[in-house]
């Protein structure tokens, strides 16, 4: 995670209101493949560059006082990609985790992985478990990586867990409400995202955080993920601060 150690700590841009920042930002990091193709490079080079973007964004959240960042790294549908690309991504996740864990600990970042983690390669699962355990006391930034994640899959597994409790008598069916349901989601320790950013222009959610997005403000930029820098994030936050979040009420 986090940009090179020599990077200066940057203040919040003066045109942003520190009292109206989103507390939780979610990102669909899209467009790595197109970014690479436009430069005559293999798709995997886009994924590699995307890691640098993510490091800087995480650093930026810490510098600017945004307490939670959740990113979509691999969807339940992404298994359908060519085997070489899937294998590259799994290896990349593991290498990056191994390489960046010490810095995450030093920077007081808490990392969590959400998704169906048991289907990931065993060596990656071990790195994931280690990183979650070693950062569990950290409070600077709550950094969540959705890996083998699908919003529908998350909802189905929550239903299954609840149904099981009803069957064994641990829970009354009538006790199921929104709060209880939320406690069975992978994201149960986090608030819902205030802002969803999608890079590379597609106007869709692609099965990301379906339940949690109920009242997220959506920001789509045409910038490809490898080029999404601090200035692009600044623009997203400026746009967010212009929104009137009514939550179904009237002013
Ligand atoms: C997002 O970039 C990264 C992952 C899904 C892992 P893509 O790989 O989807 O890039 P495009 O959308 O094909 O350009
Ligand atoms: C969403 O991007 C998944 C991730 C960013 C990990 P995709 O590239 O997989 O989504 P679609 O295919 O454009 O909907
Ligand atoms: Mg894509």
UniProtKB/TrEMBL annotation:
- The record lists the organism as Spirulina subsalsa FACHB-351
The record ties this protein, via CDD domains, to: Cis_IPPS
Matching NCBIfam families: PRK14830.1, PRK14831.1, uppS
Superkingdom of the source?
A: Bacteria
Q: How is the cofactor bound?
A: Binds 2 magnesium ions per subunit.
User: What residues form the catalytic site here?
Assistant: 30, 78
Q: Does the keyword Transferase apply?
A: yes
Matching entries from PROSITE patterns are given as:
UPP_SYNTHASE
Q: What is this protein called?
A: Isoprenyl transferase
Q: Which cofactors? A: Mg(2+)
* Family membership: Belongs to the UPP synthase family.
Q: What EC number(s) are associated with this protein in UniProt?
A: 2.5.1.-
Positions that bind Mg(2+): 30, 217
Q: Which UniProt keywords apply?
A: Magnesium, Metal-binding, Transferase
